[in-house]
Amino acid sequence: MEEEKREVDGGLFVSRSYLVCLSEGIKLPTRHILSLLRFLYPSLSACALTAALWGVFFNQMSVAWTQWMDGDGAVALSFLVIMFMLLVLLSMLSGSFYLGNVMTAVACFADAGRWPVLRFGSLRREIFRTSLRAFNILLVGQVFKYLVMVPVVWALGMCSVWTWVAVGGMWLAFGVPYCMTGMDYMLDGRCGFIASLKRMKDGYRHWTMFFIILFCSGLLVEMLVVVAWLPAAILSYAGHQSFVGVLAGDATDLPSYIPALIVLFFMLAAVLTCIFRWLVYFPLAFLYGSIEARRCEKAFFEEEEHRLNDLH
Asked: Which letter does DSSP use for residue 147 in this model?
């Protein structure tokens, strides 16, 4: 009861330290996990179905990649490129749907000042609008990755130390403050993307706080994600080796149910990954709310100071 009272009195747009933002961002979704799961069920299902498609085509794509690396035919490369682009597009659509779903829950919490009653049907328009905004955020991130970061990796070589120094530097320089743009664009429905992009200056101003939250919660999330995907990775590797052997003319000793099991573990890992990412999304939302609260307080004091100066 005391924690719920603090949640009611606090809300999202309250000035907090980054450690409090991290703590509240972890406690809030875990405290309301059942309510969130019911509200996010449609978008979680979309992510699971997309992961199932990755599981279905994983062996074919991995073998096509192996054949292309061995210099074996443009047909394998065309299949790899087409399937990869389609699956990436589907992943972006389902991911933006899920992210918009989560941010709609955060926005309702911010408006109510306490955890609201969430119903997907009554909020479907808000979810759709927020999902479109999330898609724009993800699209810009993907464009930057494939037009800037991937060419750097290609030019310097994946095994070079300088490659990872350059990629890490670009992520620190642009990825960390870009979180401010994402939060502002998705949670403040009144502003456009360009206006939110200008808020990156606040991301640079509070870069340390964003980095600490991303590092602490992100490190925890990535460890959980690795554990969640480990069974799927082991089965996928076994399926890949078996598929390569079949193409070489060898008999497979893999049980017939393994492909279905791969799809199942891909779906389960995708759902768990989505849930684990709450531990990043909610602390970032609390940090954004804290920054906005401080900005409003500063604007209010400046306005009062100007008013008093005018009176004198």
From this structure: I
**DSSP class of 114:** S
- Give burial (CB, 10 Å; 0-12/13-18/19+) of 280: buried
Please report where in the chains the tokens 């193409």 appear, as a residue.
247
Query: Model-level pTM greater than 0.70?
Result: yes
Largest Cα–Cα distance of the chain, in whole Å? 93
14-28, 153-167, 240-254: least confident range: 240-254
The token pair that represents 211 in the structure block: 């980095």
Q: Residue 205 has what DSSP assignment? A: H
List of residues 6+ apart from 8 with CB closer than 8 A: 113, 114
Q: What pLDDT, in 10s, does the model give residues 18-73?
A: 888 999 999 999 999 999 999 999 999 999 999 999 988 887 777 777 766 666 55
Tokens coding 282? 């909610």
Helices (H), the chain: 2-10, 18-31, 33-39, 41-69, 74-112, 124-144, 150-156, 161-170, 176-187, 193-198, 200-205, 207-247, 258-276, 278-311
Of 222, 220, 232, the C-alpha closest to 268 is: 232
Say how far apart CA 90 and CA 46 lie, in whole Å.
9
- Cα–Cα distance for residue pair 115/106, rounded to 1 Å: 9
Q: Are 238 and 246 in contact (CB under 8 A)?
A: no
* Token pair recorded at residue 65: 């990649």
